């Protein structure tokens, strides 16, 4: 079969790119190895509960948000409902319990009340993240880490930790996270607020997959791409098979353009050896980002009935005294590891039936801590993690344990199994200061990247931006004579 564009992978980047190209009349084939589209933007059912895989809150969409234009263009607006999240986050570390507002003026005022000696540093922090381009133009162009920046403007270590409360949305260590990247990403939460998709992120993914199909495209689920065909330094198509078929049961489709929505290391392995080696050399200086451990909860009653009134809480262990302790804590025992808990019942999320609730706990985790574990030890460690975190949440939300009707644990191994991402990385390459950006692969002119591993980075917004920009770059190309 011949197509104008083949998209490898059905994550948000691939879905957005495919939807835009289909809208503009291109014949699109999208191939996804999972049984549903979306990648990390998916949900799954357990008993009466719809459990959200990845979405806690998405920045925007707001008036200054590029996603608003994208959603209007692709008809998402009016078909998908975005619920405004009430507060940015609640930070708890045993020394402070602070609610951080999405409104930057309210957030700055509250923090200035708590830390009156740090008013100037607080003002400089918000000035940086709300006007990152202006600040870059005014200062030296060298990209520094978020940790280095905070150390240069603020003395109080707890204030730094509060500002870094949601660090896990981007990275695992403030001293290896690019200030430029962080400023744009964090600034969008303060500029545009945040939202959750009513019914879960699967509704957005299903909508985009349906949009591709309703505009003449094809979406193949449960199929896995095993190779990219290259002739004359041009990608000519892909080799793929049904996921459970034997390796020899392959088929091939052809296209003028190929979009890789999968991880860049996986793309290198799909290419003929000479091109694969060259691409690996391109990203050899980049490191894979961290993974996550997630405990999914179904509750027999809304946590509001227990007096819990926060959508998301970020709990830093008391042993973390400064930003310098965050990285080591991410490998600490689960009894001390910092974590995030999201209570979807604070919104009309439609994830649970009336009178019940759904929540999720996440912490930074790493695949290498699970790889050498035997099956019994693996299962025991999952149960241990869940039980320890439930004990810790019981202290914050009395009655929590009695409300738990169902729980399930996903590890970095789970992330790798469902996304095929190396190291179970959820955000693609780590966003280190001065990170090399790979927007295209010159040796194969019509091979494009539209994923968390590309120019725009990870997260829901990064994937959506990357997919849309990839589609625009293809649409701007002149058709060969």
Written description of the protein model:
By secondary structure, the chain is of the alpha/beta class. It folds into two domains: 2-43 and 200-286 and 436-475, FAD/NAD(P)-binding domain, CATH 3.50.50; 56-103 and 155-170 and 188-197 and 287-430, Polyamine Oxidase, Chain A, domain 2 (Alpha-Beta Complex). It is built from 16 helices and 19 strands. The protein has helices spanning 12-23, 66-73, 104-114, 119-130, 132-138, 146-153, 157-163, 179-192, 202-214, 264-270, 273-282, 326-329, 375-396, 400-403, 412-419, 459-475, and strands spanning 2-8, 28-31, 43-46, 49-52, 58-59, 82-84, 89-92, 97-100, 194-197, 218-220, 223-231, 234-242, 251-260, 291-299, 312-315, 339-343, 357-365, 404-410, 447-449. Strands 1, 2, 10, 11, 12, 13 and 19 form a seven-stranded mixed beta sheet that branches. It has a seven-stranded mixed beta sheet with strand order 8-7-15-16-17-14-18. Strands 5-9-6 form a three-stranded antiparallel beta sheet.
Identify the overall geometry.
Answer: globular
Biggest sheet architecture: 7 strands, mixed
First CA to last CA: what distance?
A: 22 Å
Tally of structural domains: 2
Q: Total number of helical segments?
A: 16
The CATH superfamily of the largest domain is identified as Protoporphyrinogen oxidase, mitochondrial, domain 2
Give the proportion of residues in helices. 25-40%
Count of individual beta strands: 19
CATH architecture of the largest domain: Alpha-Beta Complex
* CATH topology category name of the largest domain: Polyamine Oxidase, Chain A, domain 2
- Helix- and strand-based class? alpha/beta
Kindly provide the name of the CATH class of the largest domain. Alpha Beta
Uncertain segments are none
């Amino acid at each position: 079969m011949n197509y104008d564009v083949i998209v490898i992978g059905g994550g948000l980047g691939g879905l957005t790119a495919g939807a835009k190209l289909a809208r503009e009349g291109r014949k699109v084939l999208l191939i996804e190895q999972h049984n549903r589209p979306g990648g990390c933007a998916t949900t799954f059912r357990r008993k009466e509960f719809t459990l959200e895989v990845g979405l806690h809150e998405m920045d925007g969409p707001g008036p200054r948000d590029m996603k608003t234009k994208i959603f209007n263009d692709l008809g998402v607006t009016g078909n998908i409902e975005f619920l405004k999240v009430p507060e940015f986050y609640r930070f708890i570390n045993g020394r402070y319990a602070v609610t951080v507002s999405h409104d930057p003026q309210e957030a700055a005022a509250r923090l200035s009340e708590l830390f009156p000696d740090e008013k100037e540093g607080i003002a400089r922090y918000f000035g940086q993240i709300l006007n990152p381009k202006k600040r870059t133009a005014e200062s030296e162009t060298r990209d520094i880490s978020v940790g280095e920046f905070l150390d240069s403007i603020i003395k109080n270590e707890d204030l730094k930790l509060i500002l870094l409360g949601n660090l896990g949305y981007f990275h695992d260590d403030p001293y290896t996270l690019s200030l430029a990247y962080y400023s744009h990403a964090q600034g969008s939460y303060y500029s545009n607020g945040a939202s959750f998709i009513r019914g879960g992120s699967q509704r957005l993914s299903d909508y985009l997959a349906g949009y591709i199909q309703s505009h003449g495209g094809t979406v193949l689920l449960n199929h896995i791409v095993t190779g990219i065909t290259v002739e004359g330094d041009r990608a000519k198509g892909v080799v793929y098979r049904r996921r459970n078929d034997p390796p020899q049961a392959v088929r091939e489709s052809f296209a003028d353009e190929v979009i890789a929505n999968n991880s860049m290391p996986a793309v290198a392995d799909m290419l003929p050896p000479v091109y694969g080696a060259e691409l690996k050399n391109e990203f050899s200086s980049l490191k894979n980002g961290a993974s996550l451990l997630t405990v999914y909860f179904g509750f027999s009653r809304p946590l509001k009935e227990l007096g819990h009134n926060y959508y998301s809480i970020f709990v830093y262990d008391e042993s973390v005294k400064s930003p310098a302790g965050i990285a080591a804590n991410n490998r600490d025992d689960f009894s001390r590891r910092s974590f995030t808990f999201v209570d979807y019942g604070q919104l009309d999320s439609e994830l649970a039936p009336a009178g019940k609730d759904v929540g999720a706990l996440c912490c930074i985790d790493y695949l290498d801590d699970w790889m050498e574990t035997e099956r019994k030890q693996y299962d025991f460690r999952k149960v241990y993690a869940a039980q320890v975190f439930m004990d810790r949440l019981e202290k914050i939300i009395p009655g929590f344990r009695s409300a738990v009707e169902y729980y399930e644990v996903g590890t970095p191994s789970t992330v790798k199994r469902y996304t095929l991402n190396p190291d179970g990385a959820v955000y693609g390459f780590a966003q280190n200061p001065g990170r090399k950006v790979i927007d295209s692969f010159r040796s194969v002119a019509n091979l494009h990247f539209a994923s968390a591993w590309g120019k725009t980075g990870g997260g829901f917004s990064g994937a959506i931006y990357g997919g849309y920009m990839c589609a625009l770059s293809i649409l701007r190309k002149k058709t060969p004579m």
